[in-house]
Amino acid sequence: MAHLAEQTVAPAERVHPVPADFAQKTNLDPAGYLAMRQEAETDPVAFWAREGQRLDWIEPYTKVKDTSFDLQDFRIKWYEDGVLNVAANCLDRHLKTRGDKPAIIWEADDPSKSRTLTYRDLFEEVCRFANVLKDLGVERGDRVTLYLPMIPEAAVAMLACARIGAIHSVVFAGFSPEALAGRLIDCGSQVIVTADGGVRGGKSVPLKANVDRACEQEGVDVHSVLVIRRTDDPVKMVEGRDHWLEDCAALVSAECPAVPMGAEDPLFILYTSGSTGKPKGVLHTSGGYLVWAAMTHEYAFDLKEDDVYWCSADIGWVTGHSYIVYGPLANGATTVMFEGVPTWPDASRFWQVVDKHQVSTFYTAPTAIRALMREGDAPVQATSRKSLRLLGTVGEPINPEAWEWYYRTVGEARCPIVDTWWQTETGGTMMMPIPGTTDQKPGAASHPFFGVTPALLDAEGRELTGAAEGNLVIRDSWPGQMRTVYGDHQRFIDTYFSAYPGNYFTGDGCRRDADGFYWITGRVDDVLNVSGHRMGTAEIESALVAHPAVAEAAVVGYPHDLKGQGIYAYVTLKAGQEGDDDLRRGLIRHVRAEIGPIAILDKVQFAPGLPKTRSGKIMRRILRKIAENSIDSLGDTSTLADPGVVDELIAHRCSDI
Ligand code: 6R9
């Protein structure tokens, strides 16, 4: 009868029980899960004191949790008086028992190339790299910017910074020189680690040339550029500033002590888009972050000692930080790092890599799943995938159709799917089904992780109980929480704690169903999620108005089959400019050059005017409705200064380009 039900029930309403085989071998049975949830709620200090023990501490902590979101008495401190080194936790402590275990399996863009680094290899490379950084004058607390392709040296560089107490700021290698320059200036970084070039999908990317251009920008003050050889493309080396890693590494010792760091000392900065202005430097610290990354990695992925775990994210995003590098390595796991793209040389690539390295756990983004689903089942079925036992997704809501395809076609209904909801700000996953323990509903982020206290609030801040939909906040701190916006603590408070005082506001909307499952409905602020990449509409708008032909611009998202959200730009031109296809293409190129290839406008509508209130505020709500073609439900337009503008916008709405 189950079969009949599946035919008649819409995918979103289905419940998949835990696959029976999986349940037998899971690390956490339902009773154990409930007991942990309860303890985290009733006695958080005891709970987190014990969880903190998963790390090696140089000086043990006596204070576990000192947190308050009350603006009069605001503080977020975890394991405050503990002393540790993050790199030593990811490397040194594994050497005795796991020295010969693969730490990183690197799969190159070229399918014939891969490389394995054992824990001992990785330890040695990190020590050398750390000594190279020291030779370049890097000291504890200095910011080091990493602009790198997906090569093992990216993880090495991160861990080398952590080893000597430097703060890394990884900038996604798809960002433009302008975006890189902005991030260098914001954190006052004087050292960059890059490569001559990167390779993705058979094409090379001129990373070093981008760094050179970023360094020419006003305000950038870089004294050293460390260059890793990857493509052998010719690059310009600036005397005194630029150094090849291989030359420097040959001169240094292979021994480098790990610097004792306070639990609350910064580990890294990672820039992310918000609803206003320039990207924020999200700052994570050492102790709480690593406890969170390691613990969530263990439970979300039901980690086993012999797992080959692969997260297909890029190191330039938080998922790469927590679930390629810090979580897995702190747990002594084998982590796969992939340089290429899912569809090159063909749409079987992911699954070929799974077979080649016998991957047991695979974690990717809905946008990749949708892109592969479009290619049909054959490229999947051409591979075995027998090694897989668990699948995960992250980055945006997964539509139930894509979930079902991932579950049935890729995982052959044998592998639970862990849909992990979290953010750059949260350090690690906050909601997900616990594999093998909780039922699965396709598309639901499901349940809060241990110690996470979600609540749904209405626009006035009243808590909604039972089945409801509202703004998702978190009531109390968790160890992996960001601690500040680098250099601008007030912005941290204003962005996350002022909308609903006493709560961390996520910026996401969320529904809780009658069974208590949580479903993320998407951003409720002006942040877009395009193919799992976060972008502020304000960032794209300021890139547009920097174009000489543009007077004003407003950008909104609209539902897009493949990307999740597409970018729709309304552009008002300066007098005398003509809005034709040439200019449209020119604007698309311009935004791509300003921000990077992740920012490709899907639709550009030239508009003589934008809908504004009498006080001059653009009414984005209306622009969103027009973009998604919901013209019948525009809502109240009576507060518009000039309602005629709307008719004009509807008349010239962009169809697909
Ligand atoms: C880890 C990461 C965060 C935003 C977040 C939300 C969306 C992430 C999701 C999800 C639904 C999931 N998001 N995971 N929405 N289900 N499983 O992606 O961090 O780049 O900072 O993006 O992504 O809207 O607020 P980040």
TrEMBL record:
Protein modification? Acetylated. Deacetylation by the SIR2-homolog deacetylase activates the enzyme.
Q: Cofactor(s) for this protein? A: Mg(2+)
Query: Which reactions appear under catalytic activity for this entry?
Result: acetate + ATP + CoA = acetyl-CoA + AMP + diphosphate
Q: Name one GO molecular function term.
A: AMP binding
The positions annotated for binding CoA are: 200-203, 319, 531, 592
What family does the database annotate? Belongs to the ATP-dependent AMP-binding enzyme family.
Against HAMAP family, the record matches this protein to: Ac_CoA_synth
State the protein's name.
Answer: Acetyl-coenzyme A synthetase
